[in-house]
Design a protein that fits this description.
Order of helices and strands: HHHHH
Number of domains: 1
Radius of gyration: 17 Å
Shape: elongated
Distance between the termini: 23 Å
Helix content: over 70%
Number of helices: 5
Number of strands: 0
Length: 93
């Protein structure tokens, strides 16, 4: 199972969520960077770069959800220090 292997390697749901949000930010940065790096090119090239990097986010969110479910079953899910998130996690269980 891939999720178990990732968990055994130390990859946690928090890491996947951070990677997803990082991918969203990197998508915007790559889009702006592509616009400025090649001003003679049309907008379509910048859009392709932004979309390419932006497509990683759903994959990382999916991995985060799968790892979170595995961590709940395994008993290694860390409680969040943020009260409203902690309450939401208790309500979802």
């Amino acid at each position: 199972m891939i999720i178990k292997k990732l968990h055994d390697l130390g990859f946690r749901s928090e890491h996947a969520y951070l990677a997803a949000f990082g991918s969203i930010g990197l998508s915007v940065v790559s889009w702006i960077g592509s616009l400025k790096a090649e001003p003679g090119q049309d907008l379509a090239r910048a859009d392709r770069w932004g979309i390419f990097v932006g497509e990683w986010a759903p994959t990382f969110f999916g991995l985060g959800l799968a790892l979170s479910q595995f961590e709940q079953q395994d008993g290694t899910l860390q409680e969040s220090g943020v009260p409203h998130l902690r309450e939401a996690a208790k309500g979802a269980a």
